[in-house]
Amino acid sequence: MIAQEPADLVLPNARVPVSMIARLDMFGGARDQDCVHGDLLIRNGRAERLVPTGPTGGSPWVVLPKLTECHVHLDKCYTISRLNGVRGGLQTAIAAQAADRVHWTHRDIRSRAMRGLDELISSGCGSVRSHVDWGRDDSPNAPSLAWSILGEMAQERSDCVTLQLAPLIDVEQIADPAVADAIAREIAAVGGALGVFVLDQADRRRGVRHAFAAADKHGLALDFHVDEGLADKLDGLEIIADLAIETGFKGPVLCGHACNLMNLDPEALKRLTEKLLRSNIFVASLPATNLFLQGRADGTPDRRGVTRIHELCAAGVPVVVGTDNVQDAFCPLGRHDPRQSLALAVLAAHLDPPFGTHFPMITTSARKALGLAPKHIDGAAIGDLVMYGAASTSDLLAGVSPPVRISAAFQGELA
Question: Per residue in 278-291, pLDDT tens?
């Protein structure tokens, strides 16, 4: 790397996606499709701006803020090898994963979850939200063993990743306001988010209402698994939007899945997206698991399981992308890497180039969905940035090059 001034470091031949820059007019660089190109000037440990590329050139790099994984299940990952070839949809996967819990010892959970978390870190993640099954056999409203283990892991890895935890609670479980309040108090003690599973339960509206009340009382973000199916008349997302508007809830609300938006006609979809916009709800598309579980019938499926990314984005509803399940009953393949998840969303939902416009779904917008301040390139500490050996955003999304910490590129020069 070239030191142009005593306090400066320069990363040559860098491309920064325009979508990752807060003040494009102040950042400099030559426009190159969906990026700006130049030598990245580092001053006082922070990315300042791009300056004209020097004569030495060098290998090309694409620079991003650290990635954000908005939705995973670290307690379930890497169990597929002992599940004897699970076949079927969502309910089959739920039953198979529940049966596997006989193996969930402290050692088993920690080994699998740590493998997943370390994989997220090595993929370039700086922030992660993991859902965790809640309750024990003898006490369904108490924290699970996995909850305590992942809480310990969050502390152990806090120097390199922010790990948020969200319990996975059936919405009817919190139809009792006292239960909702008690669980929310437990979650608030560790800085988690209140996570709720909403499908077609009879008492879903009451449970969602108590979720909002408990989250508001204890200062929690909300995270819903909602309408994870293609059946007609699933209405969980609309219930959540209605109650967010009615209560005036201010905390972030993230709704994952929302598969059945594919069933809505244009007018019904327009009405619902208007409610989502008013309620400031984020929607998470989770393509890997939804493609695998949804639309199952005899033969090849003819319906995609992804939600309506194009229509939501066009309406101004913020959409993010998550990995969801990795090598478990819900998704037998995959790895913990938001870049791979975004690439799959591109293929499944026909998200066209330029790909840099979609990167907020796994960076700045994803952080907002988790209630975290977005981090852009300009002004970012170099510890909050990663770079990829790539000449374009297409190269980066193809996943050929692993992420490299920018601080590692200046080894010896930052001492």
Answer: 999 999 999 999 99
